Amino acid sequence: MRDAFCLAYIAILSPISIHTAFAESGAEAWLRYSQVKEGATSLPNRVAVVGNSEIVRTAGSELVRALEGRPGKRVPTGELPNADAFVLGTWRDIHPLFPSLSRSRVPSGDGFWLKTVPQHGAKYWLIIGASNRGVLYGTFSLLARIAQQQHVLTLDDSPSPSAPIRWVSQWDNLDGTIERGYAGRSIFLDNGQVRGDLTRVSEYARLLASIGINGCAINNVNADPRVLSSEMLPQLVRIADTFRPWGVKLAISVDLSSPMAVGGLKTFDPLDPDVAAWWKKAGDGIYARIPDFGGFVVKADSEGRSGPSQYGRTAADAANVIARALRPHHGVLLYRAFVYNHHLDWRDLKADRARAAYDYFHPLDGNFDENVVIQIKYGPIDSQVREPASPLFGAMPNTSQAIELQVTQEYTGQQRHLCFLVPMWKEILDFDMHANGATPVKKIVSGEVWHRRLGGYNAVVNVGLDANWLGHPLAMANLYGYGRLAWNPNLSAEEIAAEWTRLTFGNNPQVVSTISKMLLSSWHIYESYTGPLGAGTLTDILGDHYGPGIESSEHNGWGQWHRADEHGIGMDRTIATGTGYIGQYSREVQKRYEWLANCPDELLLFMHHVPYTFVLHSGNTVIQHIYDSHYEGAEQAAELVTQWKSLHGQIDDERYSDVLTRLEYQAGHAIVWRDTVVNWFFKTSGIMDAKGRMGHP
Ligand code: GCW
């Protein structure tokens, strides 16, 4: 035993009621240890933390906190308590205490092994990680199992995460506002500075750690170059220090023009040696103070941001010059593939924003340095309620990739509508690109398909100062689900919904089944009353990306066109007569989308332009589908209110009322959506609703 052996004795209090006396704010999210205490009566009341790592100590404290114990005394040498105990540590530290255990069971990376072992007349609940993080993740996993009343008296389970990069991003501005944030101001920044009080940051890091997230980029990808100024660095150090005990690496978004904007150079040309030297110095400076710094996220040549095209350089030139500054320190560069021309000619039927990411990045495959990861939005447009998987996933075998998801519901109801996105993310992650045999997106981004060392996930979360983090109490299911999928994309949406509900609202079967059902139906409901058949968005894209604005997509250069006119609707993206977008997929996928006979209804209008009278696989015409889905969707939104009301008295009043208010608002807004869309399509197509509902709500 090289390291001190720290043993903390804890006392478990008698079980208390889940109807606690304090006001329920939602701040605890899914980490509610009153349930753990209820389930913990047959578990040990000792915690032995082995080793000296800060992260492992965090894990030990979390266990003590969950069991409502008191930290005990440090014991200097490596003797196990001769009574039942939880024993936490890395393999290196635990193995000498349990020499008969086999190394082969401990997953490498951030995985862990939960194992119960009888020894010397006592029973030990071992939480072993190859890394310190693994120990922390194992601890949270064990606590989640106890809280869900799973069997934990004998354990032998060794899960490991699907991918090394499991990050979140915040789009927080230095002034404390958040781009596309719907839950208050930034927990990180205010008035050009990092906040003095970082309590919420620590609590956020704890939430992230509990679902296996290991990195957080804290500022807007529309990055203020001042984030790299010398005044900022000591402030970033404070955030990194706050993240560190939870195993969350700090990352920041940087602007490509930084060498000019804050460095005083005359250029930011990525091939200029002075520019390379500037990035190197910036990287070295950060790592000198933050040795575990995660890396940078870059948005360039996109929506008016500076970029390599200003010097006739490529995204690979830009990415590599920055990546080389990070590489000696093991940092990564997430370079976003969200690059497109937002001044497209809307009259040009061959112009197509959906083509952009592939057109820019596919030719660069193989030109990126090893520590560059291309971060690709899940669909080719921009976080819409329905998009196909981006064809770029299947087109870069020599490049590491990460998928970008949005927990913040920019186009999906902005946390005023319930929209559980896990089923949508699952569809994308499970979608087979047929790039090289069976190649679902989840196996591409994990690095498995093309044997890439790096790869993974980054989601825009945008929690804010609101006590419950995301505004809508049920929206937290998306953050939870994101972390769970990044860890294990093979989990089903049903499993995730049930897990989250149990952890957040308790194990009452009626509560679990009602809330799970509501969550699982909500994406489809939202899609039904907002956007039909993959038509592209009918949301107001020129304002705040909320509510109906059917014409806002058209007749401008943003390229979110649905091309609805008096004859028909949809973007012709076929190879034969359209923009050729479908040609960016493998042959198998092309067959699915190119021919009307094969194209799934839900993406028909993404791929084809058809008359309103076109008959879908469902047997309905397109126009009747638009009418039906909007009436049905609004009805189902109203049913969500009824379903929620059935839980009255079964959950705390605060969250009950908060959710009820939001669902009632949603049901009303769904009617606004329905009537706006139905009336517009009637006026435009001149075709009546066969069911005669128009004007008769
Ligand atoms: O969807 C758009 C958002 C922008 C965002 C951009 C991006 C940060 O409306 O607010 O900018 O995507 O992802 O870069």
Structure write-up:
Helices cover 33% and strands 13% of the residues. It is of the alpha/beta class. It has an eight-stranded parallel beta barrel with strand order 7-10-11-12-13-14-15-16. A six-stranded mixed beta sheet has the order 1-2-3-5-4-6. Strand 4 (112-119) and strand 5 (122-129) form a beta hairpin. Helix 2 (54-66) runs parallel beside helix 4 (132-147), helix 13 (476-487) crosses helix 14 (493-505) and helix 18 (622-645) runs antiparallel to helix 19 (653-685). Mean pLDDT is 94; it is low at 12-20. The protein binds 4-O-methyl-beta-D-glucopyranuronic acid (GCW). 4-O-methyl-beta-D-glucopyranuronic acid binds at residues 171, 179-180, 220-222, 299, 338, 382-383, 410.
Task: Present the secondary structure layout.
Layout: E1 5-9, H1 33-39, E2 46-50, H2 54-66, E3 85-90, H3 91-94, E4 112-119, E5 122-129, H4 132-147, E6 156-157, E7 165-172, E8 189-190, E9 193-194, H5 199-210, E10 215-219, H6 233-243, E11 249-254, H7 258-261, H8 273-289, E12 295-298, H9 315-326, E13 332-336, H10 356-361, E14 372-377, E15 400-406, H11 422-430, H12 441-445, E16 456-460, H13 476-487, H14 493-505, H15 509-530, E17 568-569, H16 587-594, H17 604-607, E18 610-611, H18 622-645, H19 653-685
Parallel strand pairs: 2-3, 3-5, 7-10, 7-16, 10-11, 11-12, 12-13, 13-14, 14-15, 15-16
Antiparallel strand pairs: 1-2, 4-5, 4-6, 8-9, 17-18
Helix pairs in contact: 1-4, 2-4, 8-9, 13-14, 14-15, 15-18, 18-19
The structure holds 4-O-methyl-beta-D-glucopyranuronic acid (GCW).
